[in-house]
């Protein structure tokens, strides 16, 4: 088992030994044993007082004060469905047990706001937004904390390049980040602390004042600013206490950030304990991790300029959160097409039902409809409780959507007994699933309109031009000019516009251009 050391620089400030140290280096080294992902503090004097004795902020944490959190062992909670999560600390899936029955404290490391956020950031916060939503679905009361590291070397460097005040720059990009989260329908956390508002808590966590009669030294350091790791240790303790349920972040934060957080928190409070460490996988571009430092990043704004924001969310949920996901523009086209199908189906259902309440006791529904609803509910809860297996949930939506379309559009479906009651129950169940996934739009009609507008933008067409092409094709078909009719259909298909002929005429919808599919296939063959 490897060993490593946290020095005065990496932990920022710790504490002096209780006996004299060399005058030029009064702060001693903290020895750690690596796990190898995480470090566990081991005092060389295990039967005596720990080497590091740090003072803690006198104010009780928000979550601890409100919910009676202690620093002891977790207590068993009894949710309606047993949730299992992969714990990076133990390297296995574990049954989730809240420390306080019915209540969850969750801290997720936030962004360093010096530029627009990219798809890698989107994946982190969509992942934990889904966890947040599912915990709510299970009936938990959650205190969700997501911070802003609003002062950092990167912020200062960027501010100097732009000749802007660092705090002004970070504040501006905090606002941009919040806009991106709203586009992606990530729910606001309970608290969004900023480092610059918590300097006192950080100081309180690391300071050790000299007591009368004890050896002490003058510090050669003047004004300073907090380091990256101590910021999260202090802010999580402020809002959730030193022990809480879930700490999350991207895979790249395992080391050194989360290891150092553990070291500092254990130094500040020997009983500090976080029950579950959860990390999401990287977003890759052409085989490499997407990052600003590599310059291979794609911002959230760039994607949603050409696509509905929820298409990006749908794409991210199409891969299990722990696995790496490779970004391809073609995948967003596919996600957009799938979303259009879902929202069009549910919009048609809503239009047929009007505003009437068609609810009836579930057991009174036709057998096949009842089976479909119960299967969806079972698959949803089973998959989500199995470490948030969102790809399986998305696939499980296919059957209820098919039955809805049959009831809406087929001759046999329109004659079904309890047709409207079945539509009402199916739409309600699908809506419940979409809500937990964060894919439920404020309005089906509005979402469809945005999807159409984005498709037209990608095709460099206006709706008037598409309608004109449809009319030209209709005329060609009436004149039996079938070759010209096919040319128009292909021309629009190549631009990402699919035509659908029906009894009421021809309509259009967004589609994946054949050329984009070919690019995706070529990329897949290259990777294999």
From TrEMBL:
Cofactor: Zn(2+)
Keyword annotations of the record: Aminoacyl-tRNA synthetase, ATP-binding, Ligase, Metal-binding, Nucleotide-binding, Protein biosynthesis, Zinc
Keyword Ubl conjugation in annotation: no
Biological process (GO), any one: cysteinyl-tRNA aminoacylation
Keyword Metal-binding set for record: yes
Leading EC class: ligase
GO MF, one annotated term: ATP binding
Pfam families, per the entry: CysS_C, tRNA-synt_1e
Alphabetical list of SUPFAM superfamilies matching this protein: Anticodon-binding domain of a subclass of class I aminoacyl-tRNA synthetases (SSF47323), Nucleotidylyl transferase (SSF52374)
EC id: 6.1.1.16
Family indicated by similarity: Belongs to the class-I aminoacyl-tRNA synthetase family.
Protein name: cysteine--tRNA ligase
Organism expressing this protein natively: Ananas comosus (Pineapple)
Source taxonomy: Eukaryota, Viridiplantae, Streptophyta, Embryophyta, Tracheophyta
Gene it is expressed from: LOC109718703
